[in-house]
Amino acid sequence: MTQVSPKQVARWVVGTKHVFVRSLLSFLADPQLISVFTASMVGLATISYRSRVKSMNWKAAHLDALKKDVPKIEVKKKGVAAVDAVFFKRLFYILRICVGTDPKTWLLIITQLGMLVGRSLLSLRIARKGGDGLKAVISKSFVQFGVVITDFFIMGIVASVINSSLKYLANLMTLEFRKKLTTHTHEKYLRDRSFYKAAILREGNLDHADQRITDDISKFCETASDLYSRTFKPLLDVILCTQRMAENIGYPGLVCLYSYFFLSGFVVRWISPPFSRMIAKIQELEGSFRRAHSRLITHAEEVAFLNGSECEKAILNERLGHVTDFSEYYFMWHFKQGIMDQYILKYLASIIGWPILAVPFLLKEGVDISEIAARYRESDSLIQGASGAISDLLMVYKKLAQLSGFTARVMELLEAVEPQERDLSLMSSKFLESDVEDMISFRDITITSPDGRLLVKDLSFDIVPGKNILVTGANGAGKTSLFRVLAQLWIPTAGTVTVPRGARDLAQPLLFYVPQRPYLASGSLRDQVTYPSRFGVPGPERDAVDAKVLECLDRVKLLKLYDSTKGGLDFSHFDWNDVLSGGEKQRVGLARLFFHQPKYAVLDEATSAINPDEEGGLYEWCQKLNITVFSIAHRYELKRFHQVHLHYLADGTGKVEITNL
Question: What residues pair up with 459 in beta bridges, in sequence order?
Fold first, then answer.
């Protein structure tokens, strides 16, 4: 590199001063530039005013939520999304699930890595050929120019394939991550009834589990996959471009430029608002808005009967307002941060980068002008690429902040559905197994509701097969609490439950539950009766199942639903809840009970919509199938089908009266 004398530097500085003055005067004399500048300032003032008004309105309407969910940056709370050690620990845990040891996933990662290296090397070659093309033009060499054009033609084909491959591989990686993470979540969510504990018992304080599984996991995988390429390629570009630029302009100027980038990156990061927490808050509000729509669909008939359209519209618009208001608040912060990012990392960096690039070539002497032009063009492309790569690396914190918000919500989901050692130890101590067949015993059982209300206290009794039990009591007395404990949905506060050995096997449950409004599965008529079992593959086994299904439908007088001309048992509706009446739904629940033939069954107002003169026949079928029934009911007419009466006093003492009928 040519040595620079003090006189040369002085001449350059004086010349630069005059150029700056002339440029400023030229700017002030240009009416178009003045108009653009004025319009920009007016627009900025308008946006700033709207930002201030919106921020004040949102804070006034949601001040408590803002203090709780979007705390100040310096406040660190457990579980708050932030780019810190907790975030990286959570991220690595989730990525181990996403990547695992699957060769297909590793092949995608390695293939994309190779493509990223190839793209960076191709960028260097394109920059080099750009300089060679300029040199050929200045030298007026048609042959050299033709060589450069041919080279560009070939590189264009290669670049198109690589760029499309990178996008395709990123999409495949996103799908692989989502498939593995969602499958893992389903495994945990649907094991040991974790979905019930999370949704009903509120263990783990988990909100909107459906939105987290369907939306948050998808966005986490998309962001994580995108971050992989956005981090590795810029880093490789910086290394390769720096090595090549040093041959043209030397290392001192590059050190100054990179020092500026790292200093500006620290400043930008320091003034950045808590985007990760804002993203987590937006996802929470989106989940609340989605849940409001889901509730309207679920209870559409009740709302229509009550003419509640206006009320529901107000609720939906209120939830929508929460989403849009906070989103606009978030986008405004993005707008403000974008101004700083654009100016500091792009335009001010260009002002600093141009002298660093130009001075070495301005001071070179004794070199062919075409060679100077070629190397300047090459260095200009390289420094733009390196500066853009460094800017991308410095802007990775935004992606990390976004990823942090999704990581926090996904990790909260995983933690909520993960079986707790405390729960497992309590289950083993409260639920005992006995070799006595069909014997169920409650000893000194005390049960409290999830909100802490005392329902049952010091209850001891045995359930004998063949003796049906009628359970009565006031609304809210906790009549189903005893059977929730027996089904191991709840853990008793005190006492023990002894069940036959093997009763914990969820595939062959000891207890079958038939509610007042039975759950109707998505699927065929056969699936409604066989649920939770499925028999989809045709064959001898399914033929025997179909015969049993038809028999059960006949017992509950629902053969009218079977129509061989419309697919028979394979016929399905979009939603069976929309086509069956309340009584028909209860008959489906009883047909399901007869199909599975459990040893014990809880009928929770399961015949309230069925004609009273038909109840006797249904209870007789239970007796023929050796099903011992626990009937939760308000009608004392059902006493004639039972041998034991349990009555909850509901006086706050947890006392239960037991009477033989």
Answer: 445
Q: Which of 385, 419, 453 is the last residue of a domain?
A: 419
Q: Which helix (H) or strand (E) holds 658?
A: strand 656-660
On whether the CB atoms of residues 311 and 230 are closer than 8 A, the answer is no
Residue 601 contacts residue 593 (beta carbons within 8 Å): yes
Distance of CA 336 to the CA centre of its chain: 27
The residue among 572, 565, 561, 569 whose CA lies nearest residue 538 is: 569
Query: How many structural domains are present in the chain?
Result: 2
d(CA 593, CA 600): 10
Written as six digits, the tokens of 321 are: 């307002």
**Whole-angstrom distance, CA of residue 61 vs CA of residue 285:** 14
Task: Check if the beta carbon of residue 445 is closer than 8 Å to that of residue 497.
Answer: yes
- 319 and 453 in a single domain? The answer is no
Rounded Cα–Cα distance for residues 490 and 456 (Å):
13
Residue 469 region by backbone torsions, left for phi larger than 0, else alpha for psi between -120 and 50, else beta:
beta
* Alpha carbon 236 to its chain's center: 31
- 572-583, pLDDT tens digit by residue? 887 788 888 888
Kindly state the tokens that stand for 129. 């050929």
Q: Is the pLDDT of residue 137 over 70?
A: yes
Q: pLDDT (tens digit, 9 = 90+) per residue, 568-612?
A: 888 888 778 888 888 889 999 999 999 988 888 888 888 888 888
Are residue 99 and residue 247 in the same domain, yes or no? Answer: yes
CA atoms within 13 A of residue 643's CA, in its CB half-sphere: 9
The closest of 587, 622, 595 to 531, measured between CA atoms, is 595
Range(s) of the domain holding residue 648: 422-520+580-660
